[in-house]
Design goal:
Elements (H helix, E strand, L loop, with lengths): L24 E3 L6 E3 H6 L15 H8 L6 E3 L17 H12 L5 E8 L2 E8 L10 H17 L3 E7 L8 H19 L4 E9 L1 H4 L8 E4 L10 H8 L10 H6 L5 E2 L5 H11 L1
Parallel strand pairs: 5-6, 6-7, 7-8, 8-9
Antiparallel strand pairs: 1-2, 3-4, 4-5
Length: 278
């Protein structure tokens, strides 16, 4: 008879690990810290560590700025053509179609009329998720049509930009939108109607070089990148190191390129005050 008897142990299954759903964490584009996504969403898509304002969708922007249920969209049927039969790694037509399916809209801007604290306003809001918010012939046409309606109804215009610049797949037709939209804004000035620009991250290229910087008041969100060419291109061209925070909203405010920086939670009240003042 054995002195010791081996106890039979029932093997317990290892504790199941809690499966974290993907996308619970994100990295801030400015401070590079890893932050909890829900905390950012509760904070109006603003980084709680450095106050960087993350890009938001067009519909979120409209919901943020307008009174509930007051926004009416215009010119939803306008869609881009392919005048150059442009082809890079894929054809321009197929690229446009893919972005139309992805975003559910025809092009990179939404225009319409809404109310801010019961004050009627014309809105033009760029959509960066549609080909980087690039300005082609449809974007220019929709801005001009919106301004024409504002002139007819004597309403102020608010332009919200987030764009990589002109859409080069349309060549000179895209570049001509810079002059076309600038001429339309000049009509607002002649009619003494306010034109307010809100520059979100990022705003670059031909959009910055034209309509985005023509506002009677130019507002930027904190730490938004705003410029014409990117900093790397500039450094390679001038062979000099650029200052810290170059092209950030705070740098532009310090050098007189914009009028004010407004946090997202205060944007609606600030725009309402400006519209009421004008």
């Amino acid at each position: 008879m054995a002195w010791f008897k081996k106890q039979k142990t029932t093997e317990t299954e290892p504790a199941k690990r809690t499966k974290l759903s993907e996308g619970m964490w994100l990295k801030c584009n400015h401070c590079r810290e890893i932050i909890y996504r829900k905390e950012v969403e509760r904070n109006n898509k603003v980084c709680p560590k450095c106050d960087y304002h993350f890009p938001i969708s067009v519909l979120d922007r409209i919901a943020l700025l307008t009174d509930l249920g007051t926004f009416t969209e215009w010119d939803t049927e306008l869609a881009p053509q392919d005048p150059l039969s442009f082809q890079d790694t894929k054809s321009y037509k197929s690229r446009v179609k893919a972005h139309q399916e992805k975003t559910g809209r025809k092009d990179a801007i939404l225009t319409g009329e809404g109310k801010i604290n019961s004050q009627r306003v014309v809105f033009c809001v760029f959509d960066f998720s549609f080909m980087g918010g690039s300005m082609g012939s449809v974007v220019g046409e929709k801005i001009c049509r919106a301004i024409d309606r504002a002139l007819e109804t004597k309403l102020p215009v608010i332009l919200v930009t987030t764009s990589g610049g002109a859409r080069m797949q349309e060549g000179i037709l895209s570049l001509m939108q810079m002059a076309k939209t600038s001429a339309a804004v000049a009509k607002l000035g002649e009619a003494k109607l306010p034109f307010i620009c809100l520059l979100a991250d990022p705003t670059f290229g031909g959009v910055t070089a034209s309509v985005a910087m023509l506002g009677d008041v130019i507002i930027a969100e904190p730490k938004a990148l705003i410029g014409f060419a990117g900093p790397r291109v500039i450094e390679q061209t001038i062979k000099q190191q650029l200052p810290d925070q170059f092209q950030r909203a705070e740098f532009l405010l310090e050098h007189g390129m914009i009028d004010m920086i407004v946090e997202r939670k205060q944007l609606k009240e600030t725009l309402s005050t400006l519209v009421g003042h004008f």
